[in-house]
## 1
Amino acid sequence: MRVWYAAYGSNLSRRRFLTYLQGGTASGARRTQTGARDPQPPTGDRPVHLPGRLHFGWESVTWGGGIAFYVPGEDPRGVAARAYLLTAEQFVDVAAQEMHREPRGRLDLSRVLSEGYDVAGPGRYETIHRVGTIEDLPVLTFTAEDVDALGSLAPTAPYLRTIAEGLRESHGMSEEAVADYLRSSPVVREAWSRPALVEVLAAPM
């Protein structure tokens, strides 16, 4: 079975995402990924928009600041994402590594496929949403069940640069467009002025 995984945070960057499949450490990250049981790269890759908004919260041991969470709903801003075509096993392994677990388990996707939503566990990325369909295949993403309970925390420069890299690759955005998109989140807007954010995003990875 194949599914599309919709990435909206650091996994927007293809080279960052490939560490979840092939193992390794992304630029600016503090943690090395194990990699998936099947390390083959995605067989599809395209830009998508998700209905809802982006929130930054928690405190990441990998990046040292807030990380992105998807909040589904009707929001005119929407969320810029990148859909990767994976096997269901690869999707499960990516989700496991997001929760700092070894990629060896199983995850029943039947409920999210039939009902569009499933709380697979209590962790920060264990609530799965079906957010669309591409070529008759489901588009899935994961987030927290209660994003507000994670609080608000501004993301660090390396994390933002990684997101920006992915937005440039997948959506063709300029640094200025990325800055405007990120600052649509109140958490980012309060922490970063537009000129400062543009400068950070333009810096080398």
## 2
Amino acid sequence: MTDAPVIGVLALQGDVREHLIALAAADAVARPVRRPEELTEVDGLVIPGGESTTISKLAVLFGLMEPLRARVRDGMPVYGTCAGMIMLADKILDPRSGQETVGGIDMIVRRNAFGRQNESFEAALDVRGVDGDPVHAVFIRAPWVESVGARAEVLAEHDGHIVAVRQGTALATSFHPELTGDHRVHGLFVEMVRANRGPGSL
């Protein structure tokens, strides 16, 4: 599609390939982003799962943290899954030493809230903004959102815990939709990016 938005995946750690595939299936032009100059070439960005402390330190090391914060402040659409959700939180309840976030969503996140790797699980979730059947959600060492501010909209909960949030052009989920073959959450983000580019680009 010639009018497809260009969406990057922060390629420092995590399920980069799976996100690239899911974005392409949702009619975006998907490309990895590792350097600040690559960040300037995308209409939106996905921050994948992985280890949030490592992603934070690598983003600083690669000179990406400040440019990424600036673009998010300026309204670039961004979507974080699992560790990516932690990266988009304005506050982490239990940060590791030296851990930084990009921010962008007025929420407080608890790391590894759902338990260790061997306590990973799957669940069917109703996600606001995603039509059709419930979303098949995969949780792996997943965070949850302790609380959100007035500007943030809760999109989904599991067992009384917030697991999907949107604030303006920023989207975050505790779970990994890139692992399921269901590309509707990525489709929601692609539509957010399209809307942000304005009617002339559709």
## 3
Amino acid sequence: MTYTLDLNPDELLTTTRTVRKRLDLERPVPMELIRECIEIALQAPSGSNRQTWHWLVITDAEKRAAVGEYYRRAVEQYLAGPGAAGKLHADDPERGPVQRRVGDSVAYLGERMGQVPVLVIPCLEVRKLPAGNQAGLWGSILPSAWSYMLAARARGLGTAWTTLHLTYEQEVSELLGLPEEIRQTALIPTAYTLGTGFKPAARQPLDDGLHIDGW
């Protein structure tokens, strides 16, 4: 029987963090555990119940290293830009230090993505991207990907939602042999965590963004 952490639903939802520096890069992750997490993820909603999702799980060391190199290049470009996490709210005495820590952890993972034991890329089968509203399209895979991350957390695994590798989407698609109609959604590094105690993150007050019956 699979071991799961003693977390109630609210604790699971509020402590599933983006994990970068606390990923255990040395401990192998059994494929059976990844399959179990994806099985749970398949219970998420899908537009019109099409279920056109696909899950690319990368464990091969050379392929992980190659994807990691594309990610490293993308992170390097991201960190040099004005919108990098570590540069946001620089003058805010409360949020500034938090953002700098986030920036540091992004840089850390950027150098080590290729060493993470398992890389998971949730994909969606799409013949042609519509020109207009794509919320329904991506809404058919994002809840499933988040469910995967929740299931992983419950089993002592850490994950991070990343998309920077999509700067090199075509190159990664060719590397992994993806058909033309398969669209990558994210890159989710998955590993056991160094310790399992995670806390809710600091967030802006609810009333700063809550609007009832209008703006």
